[in-house]
Amino acid sequence: MVSFSRRSQILLASSAAFLLASCGADDVASPGAGSIPITINQPAPTPTPTGTATPTALTAAQFALATTQSGVTITADEQLALVNTGQNNNLNGFGTTLNGVYPVNGTSLTTASNPQTVLGNTGFIQNTSFVGALSGPNDNAFSGWTCNSSSATFLNSGSCTAVPSIGAGTPAASCPTGLNDDGTNEVRNSAGAVTTAATFRYCRLPSVISADLTLAKIPGLVYRFRGLTEVGVDGTSDATLTIQPGVVLAADSTETSNDVVLVNRGSKINAVGTADAPIIFTAQQNLVNNGVSDSSQGLWGGVILLGRAPTAVCATGTGPNTADGASTGATTPCQQQIEGVSGRQYGGTNAADSSGTMQYVQIRYTGIAISEGNELQGLTLGGTGSGTTIDHVQSHNSADDGIEIFGGATNLRYFVVTGADDDGFDVDNGWRGFMQFIIAAQKAGGSTADSFATEIDSNGAEDLLPRTYGRYANFTFVQTASAPAAIRLRGGADFAFVNGIVKTAANQACVNIIAGAGTGADRTTIRPANSALQDVGPPTFNSIYFQCQGR
């Protein structure tokens, strides 16, 4: 195609010839003797394009953070060399490559690998031809069922601070059988006059749901929960809590207890929304205009699912566990108390255990630090098995982790963490599973100093069994907070990363690989494969686009 400037020149020349011809000249001749001299100014030569400057390659210390634990260090140079053993990695990304969490165009930022081949899994992992969780600026995989904030915005999604759709505009007439009628949201002044008309009714869940219960979508009704709300009683009564699309559940802000929805071992949750009608767990403050802000967090505890799949960390008197999760030789199979509540156990010997299904769900404004190392986060999985389905879930503005997984074998797909105050994805205690199409977009400020996009295996016991074994495919980690790196991998965990995007802010490395035991080539986390220890070898990185240090 002729450029605009070249088209202009052609038109000007044609016009000049036409005008000369109109003056009687049949053609254009050179001036003869005595003619007025004509000076022709030659155009300046077109500069040779220089292209986009290629930045200086990152040093090892800029790319990776070295941490000493128990006297053991994996140097930044060693971490860089380990990543360089992979294929199709770009360690020197720079420039405007992302618009939030979306690639600015549909061209993969680095050559993608077949994740099914790299990870050796075709049952859960899907083949893709792009890196990151999104294929381009128009990818609608996260559209509608998510909510938007300063941490990340998604196509066709509403604001996280907006009041969820409750419907009708008038309160439901009554509560379903078995629920407590907490009245409406009507507000009166001291004289008894109505200042805010009622628009919905609160129907409170019982503290223990001991039989199957379905929460239907009823216009003008919000399901409220107060304190510890449990589904089933471990070892006594199993129950299933079914939640229909579009249902809104709100933590009770009228009292000070830690509001938590907990599904005990043997029981299930069946929370299946749709892209157009996600199920929303939120704080009561989110039910009034301007009741929450972009920085709100920690307004209630979170959602906890407990199962009977294996865990590596055992309570006193249980375990120890074995590589197959059977606790062979133990008097009592390995189990452990979950963080955040007292006396609720997770773990067992059934790797295929099911704690139910969560699909198209938002969990907003959660997270409570009860004590150091004893926190509630957006979603907590404790010993949930591969029979548990978790996909199309968003954890937003948790005051702790977006999701923490203690042991078990549950796989995740289409999971997004926005604005977590601590880690996005925290996995430990022998979790063995796969994740694909996951996003961690940290808040711009105010988070804790060690808020990684993912923190892997933090128990410090390097060789407990089953060994933590994870596989991430098609992930986007946008690190804008104050953490020293995006990926922290430690504790002897076995991990593989493929088709990912990692972007960090200025003065932030991309990876932080740590070993807490061993010497030389035998340092945990990076040592060679050893089947006797259920160790498959050093972590692997393939087709990862790294854009570190705010470049």
What structural class do helix, strand and pairing data support? mainly beta
Number of strands: 37
- Binned strand content: 25-35%
Q: Sum up the overall morphology in one term.
A: globular
Average pLDDT value?
91
Distance between the termini: 35 Å
Radius of gyration: 29 Å
Please bin the fraction of helical residues.
under 10%
Low-confidence regions: 1-44, 46-51
In DSSP terms, counting alpha (H) and pi (I) runs of 4 or more, how many helices? Answer: 4
Query: Major sheet: size, sense and barrel closure?
Result: 15 strands, mixed
Textual characterization of the structure:
The protein is mainly beta and 551 residues long. The protein has four helices and 37 strands. The strands form eight sheets. It has a 15-stranded mixed beta sheet that branches. The chain has a ten-stranded parallel beta sheet with strand order 11-14-17-20-26-28-30-32-34-36, with no helix packed on it. Strand 3 and strand 4 form a beta hairpin. The model is unreliable at 1-44 and 46-51 (pLDDT under 50).
In short, what is this structure?
The chain has 551 residues and is mainly β.
List the helices and strands and how they pair.
Blueprint: H1 4-22, H2 60-63, E1 68-69, E2 72-73, H3 76-84, E3 98-99, E4 102-103, H4 115-119, E5 147-148, E6 158-159, E7 180-184, E8 187-188, E9 194-196, E10 201-204, E11 208-209, E12 213-215, E13 221-225, E14 228-231, E15 240-243, E16 248-251, E17 260-263, E18 268-272, E19 279-283, E20 302-306, E21 336-337, E22 345-346, E23 356-364, E24 368-371, E25 374-376, E26 379-382, E27 389-396, E28 403-406, E29 412-418, E30 425-428, E31 432-441, E32 454-456, E33 469-479, E34 487-489, E35 494-504, E36 511-513, E37 540-547
Parallel strand pairs: 5-6, 10-13, 11-14, 12-15, 13-16, 14-17, 15-18, 16-19, 17-20, 18-23, 19-23, 20-26, 23-27, 26-28, 27-29, 28-30, 29-31, 30-32, 31-33, 32-34, 33-35, 34-36, 35-37
Antiparallel strand pairs: 1-2, 3-4, 7-10, 8-9, 21-22, 24-25
